[in-house]
Amino acid sequence: MTYPDETNTGVPANLPLTRATNFVLNVAGAIVGGLDFQGAVTITAPNVTLRNCRISAKGWAALDIRSDGVTLENCDIDGQAAPGIRGISISGNNVSVRHSNIHNTEDGIYLTGSSNITIENNYIHDLQSQWEGPHFDGIATDGGITDVVIQGNTIVNPHGQTSAIMLSNYFGPIARVRVEGNRLLGGGYTVYSDSQFGGGAISNVSFLNNRMGKGYYGYASMNNNSPEWSGNIDDTLGTILNQ
């Protein structure tokens, strides 16, 4: 199986890009492509498609998706290692993120208050954030999400904390999250499903057929919930992993 890397994600090689002048995408149904955004982008209109674009930004989030029905494809997201920066923040529903290259961020993708999210075939790597207290996560949520598919991604956290994927109920419940067929490397634990906080239950989470490189402490930390765990293997040895 070929996992995502720099050769098959992001803006296609040799595609010319035009310098962007508008950083708030507020036209419903717009299809935006071939732009180079030198600054943070916010999507506030529904059913926007953003493809074949580069976003280089410092601040809170390089790309902030606040509306429903958004599709992101073949984009390059560079957080420039800004303190606390998220590559993509998603608070809309029915959002798809595909074939994108996300790097130099503290959190690659952060989900909050969202449902029906598909994150597939992306390359999330080189997590960096230039301040004293970062918590590095490839994909993270503190709750308030339902019906999420995380599939076919490569997520590399080069640090001994925190995770490739972090699911926590700090601010709200989590239901129906499927993590399947990814290559997940690094962090303290490679994956977390952590229901020790007061935001509500974590239910119907599954980790299926992933390749995992062991984090500093181990492969998985599951607290106060029992995700389905099947077919996950060690990235180097190919041996079956027990939760």
Describe the structure.
With 243 residues, the chain is mainly beta. It has no helices and 28 strands. The chain starts with 17 loop residues before the first strand and ends in a 9-residue tail after the last strand.
How many separate helices? 0
Strand content: over 45%
How would the global form be characterised?
globular
Number of strands: 28
User: In which order are the strands of the major sheet placed?
Assistant: 1-4-7-10-13-16-19-22-25-28
**End-to-end C-alpha gap:** 23 Å
What is the H/E string? EEEEEEEEEEEEEEEEEEEEEEEEEEEE
- Write down the Rg: 17 Å
Keywords:
243 residues; 0% helix; nine-stranded parallel β-sheet; mainly beta; globular; ten-stranded parallel β-sheet
Question: Which SSEs are present, and which pair or pack?
Answer:
Layout: E1 18-19, E2 24-25, E3 31-33, E4 35-37, E5 41-43, E6 49-51, E7 54-56, E8 61-65, E9 71-73, E10 76-78, E11 86-90, E12 95-98, E13 101-103, E14 107-111, E15 114-120, E16 123-125, E17 137-141, E18 145-151, E19 154-157, E20 163-168, E21 174-180, E22 183-186, E23 189-194, E24 202-208, E25 211-213, E26 218-223, E27 228-230, E28 233-234
Parallel strand pairs: 1-4, 2-5, 3-6, 4-7, 5-8, 6-9, 7-10, 8-11, 9-12, 10-13, 11-14, 12-15, 13-16, 14-17, 15-18, 16-19, 17-20, 18-21, 19-22, 20-23, 21-24, 22-25, 23-26, 24-27, 25-28
